[in-house]
Design a protein that fits this description.
mainly alpha, 5 helices, MG284-like_C, Phage transcriptional regulator, RinA family
Amino acid sequence: MNKKEKIRIIRLLLKQYEKDKNILNSLNQANLYPSINYEDYYQTSSSSKEDYLLHRIQLKQELTKRIIFIEKSQSIIGDEYYHIILEDYFYEHKHWWKTYYSRATYYRRQEAAINAFFDYVTSIL
């Protein structure tokens, strides 16, 4: 795979990570502030309520697994590479690196960060 394809995959993974965090946060907020629509409550059978609750539990577990997968990469690839990946492809800041690195050093470390993150992803999947 060339660098552009790896970057595209990393961006897709990080966008999915952001979506998953938002969905999980909204599910947790919904549990904190429950609202009951009594018409729906009395019209649904007990099995569909159980199915609904089971589906929510399974969804939360799946979202949590995917979030942990991305966050675990920090300990695997290292803080510096993780910071480069987040700044370049999650936050998409343009010139954040100028205060930390020279141009040549930044591009070397960016390439190493991309390869390390991509190796982590492919080793798990």
